Amino acid sequence: MAEEPNRWEDVYQSKAEAETSWFEVRPQVSLDLIAATGATSNAAIVDVGAGASRLVDCLLEMGFHRITVLDLSETALAKARARLPDDAPVEWVVSNVLDWHPAGRFDVWHDRAAFHFLTDAADQEAYLQVMDRALVPEGHAIIGTFAPDGPEKCSGLPVARYDAAHLAERLGPDYRLIQSLMHDHHTPWGSVQRFHFGLFKKN
Known about the structure:
single chain, alpha/beta, Rossmann fold, seven-stranded mixed sheet, two-stranded antiparallel ribbon, 6 helices, 9 strands
């Protein structure tokens, strides 16, 4: 995956925030699933593959103050950071999640953008090992991916597509599926992409 940082840097350097297919003014599905975890304002939350997502803005508005935002693209994180106060309680991490060694542990792991780009079984396993080390016992993982009838590619890259059963099988017996939903994401230019979101609890 060595080429990925440059690819995503190019995307975020060449496109405005609302010119990307994944742009959401308000990531309501993610916010609803985070609420479903029962997380209090003191919960530690990480957004993996966040890009310039507005999830961090919304979490801050809701009173969360232990937020980590991770992405391969420094440009993407700079765009998100520029929207927020300088003293916002956010840790910004430029890293490939597969190589990441978080300093602390998290109550909620959120990913709407990274996991489905991992089409190699070894990369998927490496991701899940990072996630497992990062999550506290009984922590929650929210993973959004393209659904089985969603796009086969994104930004020219092949993706892995999941439904509830496939994603639960991939996460394995240490994670219990709490909630599953399909979501039609409307891109800024009006096309529809079918996503699947799974909310899991670590045993």
